[in-house]
Structure formats: structure tokens, C-alpha cells
Design a protein that fits this description.
globular, about 575 residues, 8-stranded mixed sheet, 3 domains, about 35% helix, Rossmann fold, 6-stranded antiparallel sheet, alpha/beta
């Protein structure tokens, strides 16, 4: 075992452009190159690294890349499935053959579902996507209109004020009765003349899109109920007729996905082909909204269905995804490490023996930032295996008690139990790194108490800059919500009888030294590290390392403090 006396102190920077991001989406991901640096600091090749909140499995990728043995686990079946795919040891040649066989098997169905004629050369062509628009009944004259026509402005943008062409009345969408969606635009690619055409659908294309196909589907597809107790359920789902997982898809795409899922399950390359199919499930659903400014936009962290949505050609999506998964397989072909993934609660790591783990790196849920079980609903509906919400470590006060309602105190207890398991499985003097951030000082305080109750002592805290923000970070950038887009990595060791720092009864950090520390940081930092998100992470790091209470230093509190003592210039703070 590597005996490291000093924690990793360098700031970590990662990116999101690698194949480890493109192969399969997930709600949050930690760039594996950043994890590799910490793994190599704390361990030797062949050492055992554990991640009990593995999510997408980026810790497993880092283990495989660095020659370590990764033991990953997560409560979510979707996370286990995705992490297993990312860290799997697959044969590139065999996967390629399996992918080609699957696409060949589906070729005839693609022509049936998405085949059309090129309007330029009259050759066979295929529909790459169809844009669907809600229909609305005007609240004044009851005339049936398309949202596409009522909302679009001459410059192509969308207005929140809609206009009825019959009575010339104006109204908001919420005032109208929403009716069934209709196709309004198709994008067609022709393999012969190489043209890509975007135009209104022909009568034939319109009929093909509107044809009811649910009764024609002979392959299995998910019918799990999407119930109104879920955090992400909204009244619009009832209005749009979304009662089951299947209702998140058009009939055409549901038939295509069902055929692809059956083919993947019957293939010798079953595991990786299933991984590729689930990777297109969300984009193949009705969740992707058409917008002139963000033409392939999806509102992450929700199950929102917009008034203008894409119906992507499932098989075109699958072709691109199989290519990305093939690149993933090739990227890990010569890697020296290994990884296994188990489904388990982080609060009960019964599959791990005490004192056997060389290092833990984990990225636990950040309070109420993401409702993972709901965000994974479509994936898990195809896997036919669902997260037990009662055991999920999130704050979810609006849920019914029988479905896992939890207060911040409940969240703290689950995190304390999870960190106690981390302390139990670690070898003597081994390290654990916990990635965390939240805009709420109460959630930070709960985490700090949970670590303290598990007898884990903080030795260092460093920033982890993912280079691109998560959906929470994007909300901060667009001023929809005050959140932090920089995470912190807390480096911990088991106290085990040594003198422990405690925040219970600790004195607050003096205000003047804190302001002086911020001023010193601003004097030399690059502009990205003088933004409110970064300075908030800097303040939390300073308080944590000093063992001081975090109360009174939420994102909003830090923003107010900065406004009172510093100057905001082009989005970055400077000394006055």
C-alpha cells in the first residue's frame, strides 16, 4: 500500500469533450482524467479503489486507465448499467461485428418507418428528424391552431404571446386548451445526391408520422406507470397523455426502439449493444425541444415536454452512438486496470470487507440538486428495474412517505451511514476523496456533520473545475438560479483515535481575515476564478480547512458579501 502523508493539493481541471462523455449521457459526470491524477497520488498500480456512489462510472474508467482495481457500486440500476458499459473490457472486433449485424437486421424497418423520397433527385431518402408542434384551441374563438404558427415571429424566434389568425386575438399558452401534436417540419437526407433538406412534410410523410402504430408493435416495450407522486411529474404530463414510460415516445420511435432493444438483447454482444441503445433513449423521446436558438435542446434534470419537440430517426441516432461506443472500446483496449460494478446502497457495503480498500473516490448526491431516480426513469423503464426511492440519499420533502420523503436531517443520516461504511472499508492511514458542492450552507453543514460522525477528518479541500458547467451551472450562468458551478474535492482520513476537529461549538471564521483572503485571491487569479461560483467555492474551502461553521455562507450570502466589499467587472470580481 502506498503510504501518503500529504493530501492532494493541486486544483483539478477536466473537460467534457472525450469519448467518455460522448458514449452515454448521465446526470453528472466527473472527468476521468482528473480522477486519475488523484488515484495515482494516493495508490500504486493494482491497488483497490472504491466508489460507492459511482453514477456514470467515471471512477471505474480512471481505474482501468491507471492500472488499478475498481470496485464500484450504486443504488440506481441505471447507474450500474451505464457504469458497467463505460468500464467494460470488450473486444473491439467482436463489438464491431455485433454492431453491424444489429444495424443490418434493422435496415428494412428503418426504410418502413423513416423512408421517403428526395425532392431533388427522386431517389430513396430517409427522414432524419420530424419536428412536432402542439395544437391549441384559441381561448376566444376555439379555432384550432398550431403552436408553430402562433408563436413564431418573422425573425424565427418564439414569442410567449400567441396570436389567433381567425379572430386576431392574443393569448398565452396556459390560457389555451392543448390538443394533440402534429408534424410541422422534416429534415431529409439523401444518400444519392448528398442533399440535406429541411421543409414542411409531404402528405405521405404526414400520414406516416401520424399513423397509429402501438398495436403493431410485437416486441417488448416498457409500460411502467409514470405516477403523479414523482418529483418530476407535472400537470402537463396528464394534459399530454403521458401516463406510462411508453408515452414519452411517439408510436414510430417506440416501435423502432423496441426492435433495437430486442436485437441488442439477442446479440452475443448483448451488454455493449444494450449500453448503446439506452444511450439513445432520451434523445429518441419527446423530451428534446426545438428552439431556433438551441435547436437540439433538452432541459436536463426534468422530464419536461415542450410545445415543439423533435422526433429523431432512432436508427440514425443508433448508428452514431454505436460509432462512439466503438471508440470507447478502442480507447480502453490496452488499458491495464479492471473494474466491477455492483448494485448496492452506499450505506450498506456488505460486499466489501473491513480494512481492505486502498482509496475511495466518490461523488455523492448534492442534497436536492438532482432527483436521480426520476431523472433515470426512462433508462430504468427499458431496463425494467427501478431505483428504490426510499433508500435514495436526496432531500425530497414533497414525496409521500411511502415513496421515500426525506428531510435534510434524513439526508444527513444516510450520508453519515455511507461515510461510516467508507471509514470501515479503508485500510489504516488510507485516504478518501469526496466531491461535493451546494449553494445552500445548511446542506454543507449537514455534510460536514455527517463526515464528523463517521470519524473522517478533513485534511485538504481543492477545487475541481469541470471546464463546462452541469445543468445546475447552466442555470447559474443564465441567471435562473443562484448555484455554484465549481465543485470541491474534500481529502479525508480516518481519525481513529487521533485528535479530531469538531465544528460543534467551533467559533466562526473572523470576517476581516476572510475578506483579506478573498482580496489576496482576487489580486492574482484569472477572470474565471474571480466569478461568484468560484469565489463561493473558495470561501467554503477556507472555512472547511479552518474547521469553522459554514452557516451564513450560502451562495447568495457570499454574493452579497462580495457586492459589499468588491467590484463586479465583466462578470468577475476585482478589488476596489
Amino acid at each position: 500500500m502506498k503510504r501518503v502523508s500529504e493530501p492532494y493539493r493541486d486544483e483539478v481541471v477536466g473537460g467534457k469533450g472525450s469519448v467518455f462523455y460522448r458514449a452515454h449521457s448521465y446526470h453528472t459526470k466527473v472527468p476521468p482524467e482528473g480522477i486519475v491524477r488523484m488515484i495515482e497520488h494516493y495508490t500504486n498500480p493494482g491497488d483497490v479503489v472504491v466508489d460507492p456512489f459511482c453514477g456514470s462510472g467515471m471512477t471505474g474508467v480512471a481505474c482501468v486507465q491507471s492500472g488499478r482495481t475498481g470496485l464500484l457500486s450504486d443504488l440506481s440500476p441505471a447507474a450500474v448499467h451505464i457504469a458497467s458499459g463505460y468500464a467494460a473490457a470488450a473486444d473491439a472486433e467482436q463489438f464491431g461485428a455485433g454492431a453491424q449485424a444489429l444495424l443490418g437486421e434493422l435496415a428494412e424497418l428503418e426504410q418502413e418507418l423513416y423512408g421517403t423520397r428526395c425532392t431533388h433527385c427522386a431517389s430513396d431518402a430517409r427522414i432524419e428528424y420530424t419536428v412536432w408542434s402542439d395544437s391549441l384551441d384559441c381561448p376566444t374563438c376555439a379555432h384550432r391552431i398550431r403552436f408553430w404558427d402562433a408563436a413564431r415571429q418573422p425573425d424565427g424566434t418564439l414569442s410567449k404571446t400567441l396570436r389567433c389568425p381567425r379572430c386576431d386575438g392574443t393569448f398565452r399558452k396556459a390560457e389555451a386548451t392543448v390538443k394533440a401534436a402534429v408534424p410541422v417540419l422534416v429534415s431529409v437526407s439523401c444518400p444519392h445526391c448528398r442533399r440535406r433538406d429541411q421543409r414542411p412534410p409531404t402528405k405521405r410523410e404526414l400520414a406516416a408520422a401520424l399513423r397509429p402504430r402501438r398495436s403493431d408493435i410485437t416486441d417488448w416495450y416498457p409500460t411502467a406507470p409514470f405516477e403523479n407522486w414523482r418529483e418530476m411529474w407535472r400537470g402537463q404530463h396528464r394534459t399530454l397523455g403521458i401516463h406510462t414510460a411508453a408515452d414519452f415516445f411517439t408510436d414510430r420511435n417506440l416501435r423502432a426502439l423496441a426492435a433495437a432493444w430486442r436485437g441488442a438483447n439477442q446479440s452475443p454482444q448483448r451488454a455493449m449493444l444494450r449500453f448503446a441503445v439506452t444511450a439513445v433513449v432520451n434523445r429518441a423521446s419527446r423530451r428534446y425541444q426545438w428552439n431556433p436558438k438551441r435547436p437540439t435542446n433538452v432541459l436536463s434534470g426534468t422530464l419536461y415536454v415542450a410545445s415543439l419537440t423533435y422526433e429523431f430517426n432512432v436508427f440514425s441516432l443508433l448508428r452514431r452512438k454505436l460509432a462512439a461506443v466503438g471508440q470507447l472500446v478502442n480507447a480502453l483496449a490496452d488499458a491495464r486496470g479492471s473494474c466491477t460494478v455492483a448494485q448496492s446502497s452506499a450505506a450498506a457495503l456488505h460486499h466489501l470487507e473491513s480494512g481492505t480498500v486502498d482509496y475511495v473516490f466518490t461523488d455523492p448526491p448534492f442534497g436536492a440538486n438532482i432527483y436521480y431516480s426520476d431523472a433515470s426513469f426512462l433508462w430504468e423503464s427499458w431496463l425494467d428495474d427501478f431505483t428504490p426511492t426510499a433508500d435514495e440519499a436526496v432531500v425530497s420533502t414533497s414525496l409521500p412517505a411511502e415513496h421515500g420523503a426525506k428531510t435534510l436531517q434524513d439526508y444527513e443520516k444516510l450520508m453519515a451511514a455511507s461515510f461510516s461504511e467508507v471509514a470501515r472499508v479503508l485500510k489504516p492511514r488510507a485516504w478518501a476523496s469526496v466531491m461535493f458542492h451546494n449553494s445552500d450552507d445548511a446542506v454543507w453543514s449537514a455534510l460536514e456533520r455527517a463526515l464528523e460522525s463517521a470519524d473522517l477528518r478533513l485534511e485538504s479541500a481543492v477545487a475541481f473545475d469541470k471546464s463546462q458547467p452541469s445543468f445546475k451551472g447552466i442555470k447559474q450562468i443564465t441567471d435562473q438560479e443562484r448555484v455554484s458551478s465549481f465543485d470541491l474535492v474534500l481529502h479525508l482520513r480516518a481519525a481513529r483515535g487521533s485528535k479530531r476537529r469538531t465544528v460543534m461549538g467551533a467559533k466562526p471564521f473572523p470576517r476581516e481575515p476572510l475578506l483579506a483572503a478573498i482580496a489576496t485571491h482576487l489580486a492574482s487569479a484569472a477572470s474565471r476564478r474571480r466569478t461568484t461560483p468560484y469565489v463561493h467555492s473558495f470561501v467554503m474551502r477556507t472555512l472547511l480547512e479552518a474547521g469553522c461553521p459554514l452557516t451564513g455562507y450560502s451562495y447568495r450570502d457570499v454574493e452579497t458579501l462580495l457586492g459589499e466589499h468588491f467590484v463586479l467587472l465583466d462578470g468577475a470580481w476585482v478589488n476596489p
